[in-house]
Structures are given as structure tokens and as C-alpha cells.
Amino acid sequence: MSRFPRLALIISVLVLGSAAHGDSASAEPAIALGRAALPEEIAAWDIDVRPDGVGLPSGKGSVKQGEELFLQQCAACHGEFGEGAGRWPAVAGGRGSLTDDNPGKAIGAYWPYVSTIFDYVRRSMPFGNAQSLTSDEVYAVTAFLLFINDVVGDDFVLSPETFTSVRLPNANGFYEDDREITERALWNREPCMINCKSEVMILNRARVLDVTPEDAKGAGSVD
Ligand code: HEC
Q: What is the pLDDT of residues 2-11, one digit of tens each?
């Protein structure tokens, strides 16, 4: 059957279906597409883990187990010590370099929480074969990533019990955006939310004010 007659058939079934339900007083929708998601399906999607450990699956894994797994499934891209192979990203190193001209942003240098590592790896690694690791394997490889970032010792075992005991070096570099409270006094008046001024007047341009960096001068219409 070509696609079109089949489509016509589907449409006529839908139309007939809606006509059949049209006059009924039931709350059933006229075109009932899909079905309610099963609890198992929702559970499969709902895998986020929070910094306080909420959402963690049961399981555990040691640095040692993680090392083995990392060498088999991760090192080809990320290097044996997380230094990054070729142009693949580093997952260790760069600690203390955040204020340098060329800051390292690997786990120990930049990431805020263990949950960021756990959730990221569980969701998306190994690249090309995402979500193929068991929970124990995610615990183990996360423990190994913490080890190569000098955050835990080589005998560390990551589990829901030890999860919140680990603090990443740059945890304090992240904080909630509290500008609405802390900077409110600097605003000159209440922000307009309704019936605001419709006309916008451009009073000056960045190029005239000389805020555009030197190199970009004359490089087009960057104003
Ligand atoms: C085929 C190459 C490849 C393999 C194998 C691989 N990764 Fe990755 N990994 C990547 C790429 C590419 C990115 C960056 C993805 C992006 O930015 O969207 C990445 C990003 C990451 C990051 C985040 C790095 C950062 O700072 O942004 C972590 C952590 C990570 N991988 C861990 C792992 C672990 C653990 C494994 C093994 C279970 C693994 N990767 C296997 C290619 C790979």
C-alpha cells in the first residue's frame, strides 16, 4: 500500500472515531492519541541526581574498579590519567588555574558537585554508547575521576552513604543568583513590568563610547 491511502485510512478512522465520541457526554477526548506513560517509563527518564544525593540509584564502586573501567572504556579519548588524548577533552588537571589567562575547566579545577560528574557520566558517557554503564560502574568511574583529580584517596568507595562527604575544590565558586535581593538597592526604581515605555531612544553607541576592543575596530558593524 502506498503511504497516501494508508494516511487517508488513518485519518478516516480518526474522524470516525471522533464522530462516534462527538455526542457522548463522556470526558474522553475526541481523538485519543497516545497513552499515559507507565511508571517504569517515567523512572527511566527521571534519572537526575542532585548535589544532596537525592535521586541516586543504589550501588557502589571503588577507585580501583573505576580505574579498570576507565582504562577500558574512557582512556582512549580522555587519556589514562584524564589528561585528554589528542583533541578529546581532559577530565583532570588545571587545578588552581581558574584566574589564569587560559583556565583549565576540568572536574577538580571547575566543577561544583560530585552529582555533576555522576549525572553527566551516567547520562552521556561513554561517548557513542551512552547509558550502557550499570549503576555500580557509574559509581566506580566517578570515584576514579575524583581520584585523578586529587579529591579522594585510592581506597575510596563511592556510594549513596559517602556521596555527600566529598566536596569539590571549586564548590564555593558557584552560588545561587541572588542579584534580585543583593543588588535591588542599586536599581533606581522598581522595574517596569506592565504598560512600560514603548519608545526606545538610542543615546549612544558602543563604538563611539570606545568600549569595543581595539582589534575589532573597523571589523564591521559591531555597535
Ligand atoms: C569516543 C570518545 C569518548 C569516550 C570513549 C568517552 N568520552 Fe567522555 N567525552 C567525550 C567528548 C567528545 C566529550 C565532550 C562532550 C561535549 O562537550 O558535548 C566528553 C566529555 C566527558 C566529560 C566532561 C568533560 C568536561 O569537562 O566537559 C566527562 C566527565 C567524561 N566525558 C567522562 C567519560 C567517562 C567516565 C568515559 C568512560 C565511561 C568517557 N567519558 C568515555 C568523548 C569520549
A: 444 454 444 4
